[in-house]
């Protein structure tokens, strides 16, 4: 983890602060406790201050660690929300949907749902042709 950027170190910091445990943070992140320890040490070297009080059985934030937690929590929440919203975009249909609709269906079926389609799937472009279609579906 020593090659991680500061945002990765802050993610580790948040997990240790949340669990008050290097091992639980490591389990949550899917890394080793040693990797968590290295990330915290790197962050502490960067700010030149200890962020945690450590004993063999207890981890707690220093005043500086508490300050950092209070300062970064709103930003991390905003980043998390943005990432969640972006992941929703990937699950929505995009592209062009071409439809040929009979006039009666267009007026009574399609028109009422058109606003919901546009709102629910903003990445979907609709190409609608309203025409009399006579087809033999035998």
Automatic annotation (TrEMBL):
It holds the Pfam family HTH_1. The keyword Nucleotide-binding does not apply. InterPro entries: LysR-type_TF_proteobact-type, LysR_HTH_N, WH-like_DNA-bd_sf, WH_DNA-bd_sf. Keywords: DNA-binding, Transcription, Transcription regulation. Gene3D superfamilies: Winged helix-like DNA-binding domain superfamily/Winged helix DNA-binding domain (1.10.10.10). Residues 5-62 form the HTH lysR-type domain. One of its GO terms (molecular function) is DNA binding. The keyword Transcription regulation applies. Required for the induction the katG gene for catalase. Involved in the response to hydrogen peroxide. Belongs to the LysR transcriptional regulatory family. This is Probable hydrogen peroxide-inducible genes activator. It comes from Mycolicibacterium diernhoferi. The lineage of its organism: Bacteria, Bacillati, Actinomycetota, Actinomycetes, Mycobacteriales.
């Amino acid at each position: 983890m020593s090659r991680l950027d500061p945002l990765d170190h802050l993610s580790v910091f948040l997990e240790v602060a949340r669990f008050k445990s290097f091992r639980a943070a490591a389990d949550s992140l899917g890394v080793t406790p040693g990797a968590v320890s290295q990330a915290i040490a790197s962050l502490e070297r960067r700010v030149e201050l200890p962020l945690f009080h450590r004993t063999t059985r207890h981890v707690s934030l220093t005043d500086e660690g508490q300050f950092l937690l209070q300062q970064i929590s709103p930003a991390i929440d905003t980043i998390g929300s943005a990432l969640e919203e972006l992941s929703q975009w990937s699950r929505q249909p995009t592209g062009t949907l071409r439809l040929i609709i009979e006039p009666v269906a267009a007026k009574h079926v399609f028109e009422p749902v058109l606003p919901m389609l546009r709102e629910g799937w903003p990445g979907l472009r609709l190409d609608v042709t309203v025409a009399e279609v006579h087809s033999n579906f035998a």
